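Hi team,

Below is the intake form for Acyl-CoA-binding protein from Lysobacter arvi. Please confirm the fields before the structure is written into the shared record.

FORM ID: S-0412
PROTEIN: Acyl-CoA-binding protein
ORGANISM: Lysobacter arvi
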Amino acid sequence: MTDLQSAFEQAAKDVQSLPERPDNDTLLRLYALYKQGSEGDVSGPKPGFFDFVGTAKYEAWAKLKGTCSDEAKQKYIDLVKKLRA
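The structure came back. Fields below:
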């Protein structure tokens, strides 16, 4: 396991114990970066029109299409560190 992967997994644990809940835009950014870092480009059908949360998550992840996994992992780690500070 690489140092980046270890740090990514630790950040995923750390995000559960943030001092305060981030705003919705930040939560979407965390979700999208995590998904891009762990699974790659968005896949599957876009959720239905009335699934507002699912659609927002899908669109946030889709915006990162083409971002390499390592870059997404590093951005996720950096964002979690910033939120913990």
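SUMMARY LINE: The chain has a mean pLDDT of 95.

Thanks, M.
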